[in-house]
Amino acid sequence: MAAGILGVGHYVPKRVMTNLDLEKIVDTSDEWIQSRTGIETRHIAGDDEETSDLAYEASVRALADAGIQGHELELILVATITGDMAFPSVACQLQNRLGAKKAAAMDVGAACAGFMYGMITAQQFIENAEYKKVLVVGAEKLSKITDWTDRNTCVLFGDGAGACVMGPVADGYGIKSFELGADGTGDTALYQENELIRMNGREVFKFAVRQMPESSENVVLKAGLTKDDVDFLVPHQANVRIMEAARMRLDIPKEKMAYSINKYGNTSAASIPIALSEEVKNNKITPGDNVVLVGFGGGLTWGAVLLTY
Ligand code: ACO
């Protein structure tokens, strides 16, 4: 019995911050940001909206899409590096707010690759026939750990959340292969210091333009498929140039790649489920499509799956 997606949902805060807004804060330009990253705007949560609130909104939408209620959930996994507090976890906060009384709950920390780690963890419990209804969420309020005086990083990030309900699916559907990895020697490329994000952009870039295409291709081959079988690519939305590297390795046209970095920036663990949810809502991803999801992040970490939606 394969594990697959039963419902998707996403949510971003209302406030939009443009590149022109950033020009007023740091020495940067709309032209620099768009040409180097593809980002035009990002959504920023207010003081009254925490990571758990973003996660909750996305989860309610995913549960409605799956046609299930909170009390039916057996496991809640939340990928985040910006939980409201160290404990309780965002997953436990959600468990309470969704009335998911019988669900186990924990957060997953793998930075921007966190959603892939969560999804693959969920897959194991589902394929072992342990659980039939698992909620996997990626949620971040990166704005609270962004150094708004550092032009190298503050132009990149945004807030938001995406969620999937996962469970057993019919033969031929669901996750066909995955790849997970970590390289702890990359701990100085991307890390948190005194609460704030620190990044060696060039190091992260070099790692990501190699890893994203490699992992994308690996999951296709591991599934016994060829590039021609891939219908859609949902890459972590960190930088359009990195996303393009993955797309070109899979030889798929632009319209077959999720592209929302222009609107939301890099929302870390939330970026893949937000992009997936949008493409499903827009009918760009439809049942039977072979979809590659691929992400990388601080750690360094990476993960990819090939699933038939
Ligand atoms: N506006 C204007 N100039 C800037 C800005 C800015 N916002 N930021 C940096 N610059 C300057 C730099 O200071 C540098 O100037 P210098 O040559 O005088 O030193 C110049 O622009 C070029 O810098 P580069 O690092 O060469 O620029 P690059 O083309 O590599 O783009 C970027 C930088 C966008 C950060 C790129 O390296 C990148 O995308 N890296 C990956 C980042 C990433 O994906 N992070 C993911 C985090 S995932 C997670 O876990 C949260």
TrEMBL record:
Q: What Pfam families does its record include?
A: ACP_syn_III (PF08545), ACP_syn_III_C (PF08541)
For this record, the Gene Ontology CC terms, alphabetical, are: cytoplasm
The reply on keyword Cytoplasm is: yes
Summarize the subunit comment.
Homodimer.
- Beta-ketoacyl-[acyl-carrier-protein] synthase III N-terminal domain location is 106-184
The gene that this protein is the product of is: fabH
Q: In which pathway does it act?
A: Lipid metabolism; fatty acid biosynthesis
An example molecular function term from Gene Ontology annotations? beta-ketoacyl-acyl-carrier-protein synthase III activity
GO biological process, any: fatty acid biosynthetic process
Entry EC no(s) = 2.3.1.180
What the entry lists under InterPro entries is as follows: ACP_syn_III_C, ACP_syn_III_N, FabH, Thiolase-like
Domain remark from Swiss-Prot or TrEMBL: The last Arg residue of the ACP-binding site is essential for the weak association between ACP/AcpP and FabH.
The protein, known as: Beta-ketoacyl-[acyl-carrier-protein] synthase III
Q: Which Gene3D superfamilies match?
A: 3.40.47.10
Q: Which reaction does it catalyse?
A: pentanoyl-CoA + malonyl-[ACP] + H(+) = 3-oxoheptanoyl-[ACP] + CO2 + CoA; butanoyl-CoA + malonyl-[ACP] + H(+) = 3-oxohexanoyl-[ACP] + CO2 + CoA; 2-methylpropanoyl-CoA + malonyl-[ACP] + H(+) = 4-methyl-3-oxopentanoyl-[ACP] + CO2 + CoA; (2S)-2-methylbutanoyl-CoA + malonyl-[ACP] + H(+) = (4S)-4-methyl-3-oxohexanoyl-[ACP] + CO2 + CoA
UniProt domain Beta-ketoacyl-[acyl-carrier-protein] synthase III C-terminal: residue ranges: 222-308
| Record keywords, A-Z | Acyltransferase, Cytoplasm, Fatty acid biosynthesis, Fatty acid metabolism, Lipid biosynthesis, Lipid metabolism, Multifunctional enzyme, Transferase
Cellular compartments annotated: Cytoplasm
State the organism of origin.
Answer: Halolactibacillus alkaliphilus
Q: Any keyword Lipid biosynthesis?
A: yes
Alphabetical list of CDD domains matching this protein:
KAS_III (cd00830)
NCBIfam families xrefs? fabH, PRK09352.1
